[in-house]
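Convert to structure. Protein one:
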Amino acid sequence: MGAKEMVEKIKGEANGESEKIINEAKANAEKKLEDAKKELELQKERFVNAEERKGIEEKERIVRAARQNARKLRWTAEEEIIEKALERALKRIKDVKSEGFEGNSYPNILAGLIRDSAMSITAGSSTGAELEVLLSEEDAAASCIDQAMLKNLTDEISRDSGVNVRLSLSDERIKSAGGVVVRRKDGEIEVNNTFEERMARLSTSLREEIVKTLFTGK
């Protein structure tokens, strides 16, 4: 074999080898391209799913926030209406003082409050009790409770409680729209039966009734 033939043979082998390398490179590149496409599709799918989850979570967050805001607005509205209703109830005390309530005059209402207070103080007691009744300046000036009424109340409470009770009007005055405070003269026991205090004690049930009346139609 001459030099020329040898060169041609080497060139041919080199060309064959380079073609082989190129074909392998192309195949490898195509595989990598295919893998890259698959990875891109996978990433795309993951992104879409993530965005969908974000969308769902965002929708749920918006719904939760809307419901919470609605509850807050309803609660605020209820509180405002309830407070106004309670304020009106206290303002109606003036009408009660002048017109009475359900056929009972205001002095009779006070007498009932004094009786309830005294019965609470003497409950379970076997000894006598000296009690004093505290009125507001307005009720004291209007002589809503006089000595004759106190005498009748004393006899009635003593009879019903089985305890010798003595009632008297105190010179001390209370700050109240109406009602009474009754206490033992030694100061050990006191019952606050002012309208404000009674409404405070009954506030829970009053609120429930107001909510039923105003918001449920019951």
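Protein two, convert as well:
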Amino acid sequence: MIRVRLPEQLRTLAGVGKEVGVEVAGEITLRGVIDAIEASYPMLRGTIRDPATGRRRPFIRFFVAEQDYSNLGPDDPLPTALSGGREVLMVVGAIAGG
């Protein structure tokens, strides 16, 4: 089970609490986790990544154990500490402005 912490806007849209748990078969990658999130919560399709390109949305960031994994390729492995729920994948909505 992979624990994922979603930003408030996505929690509201999906009608879930602070964290969700998803199953990812095989190696843990961003693509695998996002596929599992979108399968479990179809209302989130297109909110985390662009459905046409598969790239993360510009103001979405991914963190595990305070490390930024936002620029990883979609099929690059994430830390093994995510498996078994030892760590949480944080999906963060970045804020821009001046």
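Residues 30-40 form the longest helix (11 residues). Residues 2-93 form a domain with the Ubiquitin-like (UB roll) fold (CATH 3.10.20.30).
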